[in-house]
Every structure is written in structure tokens, then in C-alpha cells.
Specification:
With 271 residues, the chain is an alpha/beta fold. 37% of the residues lie in helices and 19% in strands. A hairpin with a 2-residue loop joins strand 2 and strand 3.
Amino acid sequence: MKTLKNLKNKKLFLFDIDGTLAVGDTLYEGSVELLSYIESIGGKAYYITNNSTKSGLDYVKKFRNAFGLETAEEQFITSGYMTLRFLKQHYENQKIFVLGTTSFVAELKKNGLQVTEIAEDNIECVVVAYDSELTYEKLIQVSKVLLTTDAPFYATNPDLRCPIDFGFIPDCGAICDMITATTGKKPIYLGKPSKEVVELCLNLSGFTREETLVVGDRLYTDIACGINGGVDTCVVFTGEAQPSDMKNTPYPADYEFRNIKELLMHCTGAL
């Protein structure tokens, strides 16, 4: 673990949300205070979530209504947004098959993309997202496209499970594993742990890599994202990762704390 005093030099904080700052509609102790501290030092917080069911605007509303926090849409870098940027760059005028929530599909269409949810002719790529509205018919349609065409297979994020109040529910990675087991096709993931997530936040904020810290609860997405982006990382043990996971992980965090409150205490020098 790096010298703890280096945390006082951090200005740009890239937070995962679920399992890190909050679970469901409940903020963890210390989250509000840490965000206030970041503002007080002239820093910036971005929220790099792999939850593609919500848009940036949806998160602005959630942070206001559930947490009492005012945020800006640009602070939310979701896997859905990263996927949208990729598709606009590479498939803007081509037909895209999408398995995802009604909200995710609508967001892609609103941005001018040609989206279908039915296996049909001339599909140029397949995109799978975390889908809380998943049906067997959707699985049939995506399997048909992947087994009858050579369309590339993309997905929003590799997370296997999503934190919820009673534990976890299947996430995009678990859905993709089921599709891979059926079709033999593996997806390319566009959200965390892609280094592009960190690069975008650096470009938007103007802070340096040395001033940046990725904070999350999952090693193979959050911490791997920071490692891939060349910035320091911090894992908190309030979600998926546990202290025992740190022994043999290929994604070692630079800092590790029990929770956000403990991170706050070290940032402010209270410990």
C-alpha cells in the first residue's frame, strides 16, 4: 500500500456508486462528508458506474431525491454512456441489435442510433447491457443474431453481480456468460475496466493522473480500471471485495479501507 500521506494530494476522485458510496437508496456513513471535503479543496468528483440502466440525468435525479445531493449530468460516466460514445464513433449509420432495458434502448435511439431488438437482416453489431427487464425471448433473439451472423459482440460491463439491499443480483457479466455458453461468442466490454473511462474524466476535469484516485468495491472492474488508466486506486470493503481477496489478486489496489468514512479520515489527516 502506498504512503497514506499521498491521499492529501488527491483532487480528482472517480467513484463507483453501488457498494462504494451507497447501496440502493442509502448512502454509506462518510459519503456526504467526503464529497464536501473534495469540494472544499477545489477538487472534483466523478461517478464511474457500470450500471447502464440509468442515464446521467436519471442519476442526477436519484442523487437529489434519494441522497439530497446536487450533482451535474456530466459527473456521471456510466457504462451506458461509454457504450453510446463508442457506437456513435463506429456504428452511427448502421443497424445495431441491443439487449437492454427500455430506458437504455430509448437513450440510444434518442441519440440517433439505428437500434433493433429483433433478429433481422443487416445487423452490424450486437450490444448487451445490464437488463433488469430481461426475458427469455430477448435471449432467443440475441442468440439467433450471434449464431447466424458474424456481427461483433459488445457489452456494457463485465460485472457478474450487482449489489442490492439483501446482497446481489445478476449483472451484465452474468447475462453475457449465459449468452457465451449458448453461442460460443465472447463480448468486448466497453465500460470499466476500460482505460477510456479514466481518460475521459481526466480530459473533462483538467486534473493530472497524480491528482487522481479511483475508488471502488470491485477489483476486476473498479481497481482494474484505475490500473489500466495509470492512476492510483482505493478499494473499500463495503461491497464485493473483501480483505482476503487482496492476497492473490491480479488487481492490487494502492490503498484499502474498511469503508468510505475511513478513507475520508485519511484524506483529511484525522487519522
